[in-house]
Queue: 2 jobs
Job 1
Amino acid sequence: MSAEQRTNPVGKVKLEEEEKGAVLYNVDPIIMKYHYEIDYMHSYAQDSPFFEGLSKGELWGSKCPVCGSTFATPRGHCMNCGAKTEWMKLPLEGKVHTYTTCYFGSQEFLAETPFTLILVEWPDVDTFFLSRLLGVAPNEVKIGMPVKAKFRRLSQFKPTDVYFVPSDI
Amino acid sequence: MRPVYMIAGGITKFAKASPRKDFRYMVKEAFDQAMADVPGLTLDLIDGSVASYFSDHFTRQLMAGIMVHDYLGLTPKPSKRIESGGATGGMCIQSAWEAVASGRMDVCAAFGFETMSHVNTWKGNEFIALASDTNFDYPVGGFYTGYYAMMVKRHMYEFGTTEEQLAAVSVKNHGNALHNPYAQFPAELTIEDVMKSEMIADPLKRLDICVMSDGAAAVILASEEMAHKLTDKPVRISGVGTGTDAMRMADRPSREVILLPHENAADYKDLKYPGVHSFRGGRTAAKEAYEMAGITNPLEEIDFVELHDAFTSSEIQTYEDLGLCKYGEGGKFVESGAASLGGKVPVNPSGGLLACGHPVGATGLMQGVFALWQLQGTIGQHFNGDDTLQIKNAKRGLIHSHAGTGTYITVSVMERGF
């Protein structure tokens, strides 16, 4: 649009046409496609050391210095007494507390199905850790099965940088 | 606190997609149905409203609550939006209850909706999974059916619950819905049908899981004076309770069972609680509501229950949280027929979420509407003359709304007030 057109409201004023058009599914009523996406600048904030740990092949939970509560999934403050927690290194071997194999999933993970989810438990830790279990057929997973952590070589800085496999493989 | 009554309710037929009516029009339809049941109630007598919808993602519209309040003709009166995941509808009713109980309002409208058809099912599952910790849970494979599958696996391990017992819930609820004209997915099923349906997340199969829906529902709450002025069939909300638990299922501790009056510690001496097999928030909500309503033995003192059966497994787990049976006995409870129509305490006579559908923000209000009609004895009148689902002489019912992996849970007790 020229400077003349912008400043002269009665001349050759014309809204530019869009080439893209609309994607219509129906006209009665009108149902059309609407696209929406966004990139976030997400901070892991106080949880950052956990993700840094994964990149070093370490698994970190939390321990409360006041009441002694222990958490397999880290949290900055204690859910039982409110005190600031300390970092606590977890053993790389634990046991399956519960499990499922997902044959469907959210859109983001559909391509990865079927995948097996587990909660990992450790004998001296009060809470669990959610992860994926690889290297075992769905019908062979058992509650109580010993599992060991493995780490991606190239970190994505996501909780899936760690995953578990049966201890005996 | 003042006594609070529910005086009217309305609901749209839940459907996979309702493209001809947007969320405002859907609520308007439910609201007008409620208003039609109390002809003396005019808009000027309504002091304000509470809006219930779960996800801004589904609506693609922020401040959708005020748009409904506006559409209903209630501006410039007070209104607010409540959001608490799957429990949003139950929480909305409790928020309206607070407005009336406190004396701030004499008449308060509570309405809810969800328009889940605007994205495909797997994108919808993604939106729902964003209601799990997005640092630690969602990226691992965020999928609510997966989370519930892990919880029921542990329930099966602790208590011996079977897949056939889960299937029995599906058969019961889909069957009840055959007589509910508002239900999205009525079906005559057998245990075998459910067992043979597609595996989604072991052990939960397609027919163990509710569907996504478009729909709306509304109820009107009033003070004692206004309730008796406006209807000869008021229903009192005699107890409200709310419980919570850690957002992350992995953070659930292992402690002792929170006991209801009719239970004792010896019943559970070796049980680690809640772990991931039970909902501590559900038990907490029930305990608070029972104390307010004066209930000491729920199985004997409640005539029916409408509870949040997004999964067959959560219905079984919730029998236990509500104290209808002991922890661990939920599977046997459904098998015994106690929860069936004509049983000791019919559970989800409407068909529940499994068969009615689960337009999240409307769901808790749907339970309120069906419970209201049960207690008024007007099921036949509202269900095109079919009163098969009417529980004879129902005097007291319970509604239960549930979010996350048991993260927010509400229990409200309703009783005949005439």
Job 2
Amino acid sequence: MEMLNRLQDLQPLKLCHLYPDLLNLYGDIGNIIALTQRARVLGVSLERYAVSMGTVLDPEAYDIFFIGGGQDAQQTAIQGDLLKNKQGLCKAAQQGKVILAVCGGYQLLGEKVALANGSVMQGLGILDVHTESGRGRLIGDTVYQAGFLQPELTGPADSPADSRLLFGFENHGSRTYLKGRARPLAKVLYGYGNNGEDGTEGACWEQVYGTYSHGSFLPKNPAMTDYLLQQAYQRRYGRKLDLPSADQMDTQYENQARAQAWQRLAAQLGRHKTGGQT
Amino acid sequence: MTSLRYQLACLAGRMIYHLLRLSGRQASTLPGRVTLLLDPGALALSAQGRQILCVTGTNGKTTSTSVLARLLETGLPKGSRVLTNAFGANLTSGMMTVLLQSKKGDYVVLEADEAAFAKAAASLKPQLILVTNIFRDQLDRYGELDTVYKLILNGCLEAGQTCRLVLGADDPHVAAIGSNSVHATYFGAQDSECAPRHQSGNMTDAAHCPVCGSLLTYQGRSISHMGIYRCPACDFSRPEPEYLFRRQASAAASAGSLELTYCRVAGAQGPLPLMYRQQLTQRLPLRLEGLYNAYNISGAVAAALTLIPEMTLSQVQGALQQVRPSFGRLERIRYGDKSVCFILVKNPTGMEQGLRLVSEAQDAGGVIFFLNNHVNDGVDISWIWDAPLEQVKLPAMPVGASGQRRADMALRLHYALGSGVKIEQNEDMLALVRQFLEQCRPGQCLYLLPNYTAMLQLRQELAPLLGYQRRWDPKQPAPAGADPGSVTGAGTAAGPQTEEAEYGNAK
């Protein structure tokens, strides 16, 4: 194992944070902090790079890409720059590189995004989704179920110990709709998800993942974080990542936060039930 | 003439006010809420004949409001009355409650929540609006940063052509509010207060041009996105401030003094071209620590001098001499041979600065974070990830987390401080504080870092331990930077329904 670690250190996984200075609404940086932390726990060497406006992106140089959310003004500001890198990013996606995009970043991975002011922005077209503006913002705590994450054996299904459950918080005015190759990232158990209508949340294709779970999505979902790191590791080194033993996984604090989120939602649901009309 | 409906609504409000006061409660929102329920037009009618001044923005509203009120009390002719909404009751209900007690000719300084301000400005027709800054704070309540900017901008436009604007030049969004007004006065920090860095330590502090959306470039930054900036794409840049401040350190333990450079424009209407102005540099007492407070005081002085140009230097100095640290801002309370220190942290910058202060304190015997996500705090707590806690090297000491979202806080601290530091979690604030105080050695201080409603709850729960008054004394300053929302907001989460709950006095 030590030997393996040393080998991995020679060629670390490279994480590219796109437009961290422009797309950074609602604690998006938490996802980078989480990837860094979990990489440390899993014994994976990870280097972080920030790439922003005016830099020609070399998709070959990175293993994981992250794009956060922004306000309409910032999304418009980066659009031209992003489209210049369209080919590179599409190629990275086709090669099975990991791309995680949150909220506004997720919308930009789609084909087009209708803004609140009526104009339509071209997206990267990596995910078969399109985004429309809607009336009223969809705001609140969320719980989703992502089938591709294995349920952890240590706890019962449909409990905070079930690692398929993703906990988050959403805050978006736009609605996103899936078609074609795009598969939902998860099923909505609580909250609105993509559009508040079809019970889907986020989208994925190959190793490209988009979600409305804004800001600090990964910290409370270490199984998702680990999964992304494993995918990137496998693609880069051509073999599966050996996970540490269960007692070395260091998920105590994450699990406490998940358990508390679960209790909070249970209390909210209880109030709704006894609240009469709603 | 006022309608019978209006008079009845005011009568009802005043009766409720007196009843609440008789029963020993704080009557800072309910009377106004009832009045507005009975007559929604009451705000506009009751503002007529008063000199209304509004203070809005994200941080520093409460401090700026109280300093401005002090300045007006000193600077206005004898017999003038100055009223203000204490306790941070800064929604329309709170403003209405103050107006109920006002008479024609009174000066009313209203701290206004950003959204409430946008709604109320047209009715209030303020003479002057002071805008402090626009930070990411409570974003789940208001949506996006640009939305807050637009709320405040619209409020300023609604206030009418003659309204004076006093704006923080160093905050790009606040500065942009004044670009279409001939009545804008700017205050800002001297170059020496702005570190010469284009990139801040925190990538999320990047700021965008409010006009074209491009990334702004900085000659220097003071706090987060505030500083001396310029847009590389369009011609937007930091306006030249009429009031420029610089802090002067002092050898004594006090906060030192504030050197304010400004222009005497007595008798002139509106800003004069710079070349005609007589530049003055004055040294003013600074009773509050920190760069934030230097901004707050400079803004308040700029507003007071804009309204009362004939105010003398000694009057300004006299008023500032009386300023006391507000509740919850580095407030120390003795506990036997140990002490506790409260530091209110309610946004990323505040949280990082709070932890940094603890890391540099010689007497730190422990630190506890208290994180609630009551609607008054903002339901979304994602902002704790924007706080660059990784940059702080905390010496070994007990670290704890409490409050509604203690597990999220503990997770944030775990990621920042590493696996070697155990984060003690306890729902029971009092028990956790007791436990940590026991671990403190004599002479040490336990640092308590709550967000807004957690502060209220903590004060309540620690009262028996530390032996201070449970209820706030209305003569004391209200909490600095308090942004309590209340039930007039959207009905999404359970908001406080009673006077007591709003101020954390009821369990």
